[in-house]
Every structure is written in C-alpha cells, then in structure tokens.
Amino acid sequence: MMWCTWHQLGVLSQPGWAQPRSRAAIALRCAGVTHRFSRPTSNGCPSPPNTTGVIFASHINRRRSAAVVVPPNSNVALPGQLCTVTEPNEHSDWSNLLSLGALCLVSALRRNKALRPLYVDCTVIGLQPLLDYISNCHDRILAIGASVLTANYEAAVAIMRHAKLVDPSIKTIVGNDHFTALPGECLDRSSWIDYGFTGNEVVASAFALISRLYEGSIISPGDHPSLVVRGEQGRIHVTPPAPEPVFSDYDYAQVDELFDHTGPYRRAFRARISPRIAELLGQHVSAGVPVDIGRGCVKFANDNACSFCSIQYGGLWRNALEPRAAWATIEHAWSYGYDYLYMTADELPLTFTGLLEGMLAEQPSWWRHLPDDERPLIVGYARADGPPIPGKRLCCAGSAFVN
Ligand code: B12
Ligand code: SF4
User: Fold this and answer.
1) CATH 3.40.50.280 domain span(s) along the chain
2) What would the mean pLDDT of 143-170 be, rounded to a whole number?
3) CATH 3.30.750 domain locations along the chain
4) What is the pLDDT of residue 154?
5) What residue's CA is closest to ligand 2, atom 3?
6) Element (H or E) spanning 332, and its range?
7) Alpha carbon distance 24, 267 (integer Å)
8) What are residue 302's phi and psi, to 5 degrees?
C-alpha cells in the first residue's frame, strides 16, 4: 500500500517574533506622476489623491487595479446552494494561511507601475467586503483574477458574475488547480470568465496578459503560454505551457494593501495551529506562511501519481529554486515574522533530495548562528510507503515526522 502523508511535520525550532512593516500610504504612479493615497476609506476605495492636475487621457487609463482574489469556500459563501462536490464538513478553517498563488501574482504585478495590484482573501474577510468593493470602485478595476480550488470554484463564479453585472468591461481571469483540471469545462459553462491559465508556471504569462489588457490590446488565442481563451465561434483554445523559474520575489506587505488580512490570519493561527504544534512537538509557533522552494512529486515524472492525488502540476513535474535562493526565501519569510514555514513541495525527501542536500551544504550564517530553539519551524510533506503506524512519531537527522 502506498499513500501520501499530508500535513506531516519536519521540525526545526522556535522564533523571536517581529511585527511586519505596515504601510501608511499607497503610492500609485500614473502618467509619470506619483500620487499618495491614504488608506482605503470605509467603502474600500482609496480616498482621492491629494494632488490634482492629472486627467486620465482615456477610459482604459482610468482602470488600474488588478485584484487577485482567493474566493471563500463555496459552501460557506453560498448558503443553501448546491455545491458541486464539497460538503461543509469537508472544509476546515484551521489552515487559513496567506495564499502564495495570489501573492506571487500580486507581487509580480508591482513591476507594472501603471497598475495597483490588490490581494484579497475572502476565506478570511468574507465575500461581502469584496462584492462591495467591486460595486463601489468598479470604474477603477481593470481585472479580477480568482485562484480556484474545487472547494471555492462556485464562489469564484459568483464573484465574476457580480463583477460583470456591475461593469461588463472588468476582465475576469482564473487560475490554480480546479481550472487546471477542467479548463474546457470551466470556460464552456461559465460566460462570466474571460481568461484562464493552466498549471503552475504562469506568473510571466499572467503578468503579460494583464499588462496588455491595461494597454487595451486585443488578446488572441495563442498569445501567452498556458492561456485558455475562447477563440473563433466560441471554440476553447488552450496554449501549451512554457517553463518558468519558481517565483520568489514575494512582497508580504501587499497582503494588507486593501483589507487587513494579517490580523485574521494570525488570530486563526494562534487559535488553531499554535496549540496543536505545542501539543505534538512541544514547540511554540505564532505565525505561519507557505514557502515555495520547490514543487512537484517524483511520482508525476512517470505519470503514476497515487490514485487519490488531486494535485495539478501543469507542465513541469518538478520545479525548484537553487539551494542559495531557497535559503533566501526562507530567510525572507523568517525576517518578516513568520516562524512556521509550510513547504509547498508535494514530496520533499525523494523528489528534492538534491535540493535538500545542497541546502544542508550551504547553510547560511544567519541560520547557523541561531540557537536551535530560535529557528523557524519548517514543515514539509513526505511520501510514506508501507503500512500506517497511527500516532507513531519517528525522529532522524534533526527532523520529526508525525503522521
Ligand atoms: C500550501 C497548501 C495549503 C496551505 C496554504 C493554502 C493557501 N492559503 O495558500 C494550507 C495547509 C493552509 C492549505 C489548505 C487547504 N488546501 Co491546500 N495545498 C497547499 C499546497 C501544498 C501548495 C499550494 C501552494 O501554495 N503552492 C505554491 C503557489 C505559488 O502555487 P499555487 O497556489 O498553485 O499557484 C500557482 C498556480 O496555481 C497559479 N495560480 C494560482 N492562483 C491563480 C490565480 C490566477 C488568476 C492565475 C492566473 C493563476 C493562479 O499561479 C501560481 C504560480 O505558480 C497544494 C498542493 C500543491 N502542491 O499544489 C495544496 C492544495 C492546493 N490544497 C488543497 C485543498 C483541498 C485545501 C483545503 C480546501 C483543505 C481543506 N479541506 O481544508 C484548504 C483550503 C484552505 C482555504 N480556506 O483556502 C488541494 C486542492 C485540490 C483541488 N482539486 O482543488 C491541493 C491541490 C492539495 C490536495 N491534493 O489535496 N493548503
Ligand atoms: S502522487 Fe506524489 S504528491 Fe500525489 S499523493 Fe502520491 S506521493 Fe503525494
């Protein structure tokens, strides 16, 4: 028998806690002039710029926000509605961590100074604040992208529908596992979705698409790797993926640009995960974040994934950072105040042996000089072959495995 022990724990240690920077003002550049906006007003729109004199030349140039949204789980947001696959008791809120999929797109979009990228996670703020924001600020919204898992897909469609009814010129884009699994079905059955991207290696493509939408370009099938779009006579066109490096330039401050997400994330973490980790491992942890140093699984290479595996890896069965970049990513999260680092790699020990050995050989001085009990806790997945040993805890080489 073979199974994957999700949510296993590999241990290192505990933190000193630093508060992240909070941004007092939003800087937005348009037509070469930098405006300073105060924090959003109660309806979620930024208050008017305190400089005058820039009149946007065209309709297109007024649209500048690109929101990447994590929809709430459908059964929570759409009470009484039939959800396709997921029953309420199949969800959990214990694991609300910030979404790297959304944050990497938002962080990448910072490079386009004409845009204001926005991160919104409705699993913690709820659906209504987003719907209100769309209603109130629609004329400033260029595009809304949704990160869709199966559990939240219907809620995503509800968001897209709302956006299109409020303002049909808002472009809607979807990505992540549910769409990767069912691109044709999603586009075919929902007219509220304009574009989709399949797979993981899509940051450059999504950035390019959104930048071109801002410029008012016509988007054609085949324009961007991994793009899925309706072509002539509504035929759905899927562009093959292209390789791209694992994204690592995360800007954690973007998470709170529009709504306070960090507060609810931390409260949930301290209420649910901290006590559980203390109970299992005797460690104190206070803030968690997923960390992407590598993704994939050795079993995808030969197309023999476990029958219950629902991961959609897209075009590359394995993709990883170099050891030094992996350490830099860990340090970045740690220095921002995160002490529970949840590795996104699907199967660390066999799939990423080379990366882990490289990291062992290249331990940076900040890590080496931290006492064991001040290091962040690094949590990862491992594939286990053989009969289950419930509750058994194995320790080796500085790691603890808990199934
Ligand atoms: C880390 C992780 C978690 C963490 C953090 C989740 C989070 N908030 O980000 C925790 C433990 C909290 C978690 C919880 C859950 N998870 Co989870 N999780 C993962 C894991 C291991 C990695 C995801 C990740 O961060 N990858 C790194 C980022 C950068 O990649 P990404 O999210 O895939 O995003 C890339 C692309 O998908 C794309 N993309 C993503 N969003 C968008 C949006 C747009 C517009 C575009 C264009 C592109 C795009 O661009 C990114 C570029 O690389 C995956 C398995 C896997 N390896 O993929 C499962 C996985 C995504 N989780 C899954 C599930 C089911 C859940 C839960 C619903 C479990 C539960 N029952 O509670 C909850 C949902 C919690 C919630 N309320 O949101 C399933 C989804 C299956 C499916 N068919 O939908 C997966 C695939 C695991 C599995 N096989 O079961 N999860
Ligand atoms: S195929 Fe790999 S990632 Fe998927 S369940 Fe099996 S071991 Fe885990």
Assistant:
1) 26-238
2) 96
3) 2-17+286-402
4) 92
5) 346
6) helix 323-335
7) 22
8) -105, 20
How far apart are alpha carbons 162 and 123 in whole angstroms? 18
Strand partners, 399: 396
CB 362 within 8 A of CB 329: no
Rounded to an integer, what distance in angstroms lies between the CA atom of residue 312 and that of residue 149? 10
The answer to whether the beta carbons of residues 70 and 151 sit under 8 Å apart is: no
Mean pLDDT, residues 271-296: 93
When pLDDT is cut at 50, 70 and 90, the band that residue 138 belongs to is: very high
Q: Which DSSP category does 234 fall into?
A: G
Query: What homologous superfamily does CATH list for 26-238?
Result: Cobalamin-binding domain (3.40.50.280)
- Shortest-distance Cα residue to atom 4 of ligand 2: 309
Cα distances (angstroms) measured from residue 66 to each of 116, 123, 214, 245: 6, 19, 9, 23
Q: Give the residue ranges of DSSP H helices in 67-152.
A: 74-77, 100-109, 122-125, 128-137
Ligand nearest to the CA of residue 310, numbered in listed order: 1
The bound ligand whose nearest atom lies closest to the alpha carbon of 3 is 2
Distance separating alpha carbons of residues 401 and 70, to the nearest angstrom: 30
Type of residue numbered 254: Q
- Give the class (CATH, top level) of 2-17+286-402: alpha beta
Q: 72 alpha carbon to ligand 2 midpoint, in Å?
A: 26
The answer, yes or no, to whether any atom of ligand 2 lies below 6 A from the CB of 309, is: yes
| 115 contact partners, CB below 8 Å, separation of at least 6 | 64, 65, 66, 109, 142, 210, 211, 214
Task: Identify whether the C-beta of residue 282 lies closer than 8 Å to the C-beta of residue 135.
Answer: no
Closest Cα partner for 288 from 376, 367, 398? 376
pLDDT of residue 82: 63
Strand partners, 2: 385
Neighbours of 342 (CB within 10 A): 22
User: Which parts of 31-106 are beta strand (E)?
Assistant: 33-37, 65-70
Closest ligand 1 atom to Cα of 91: 71
Query: What ligand is nearest to the CA atom of residue 150?
Result: 1
Interval between CA 90 and ligand 2 midpoint (Å): 20
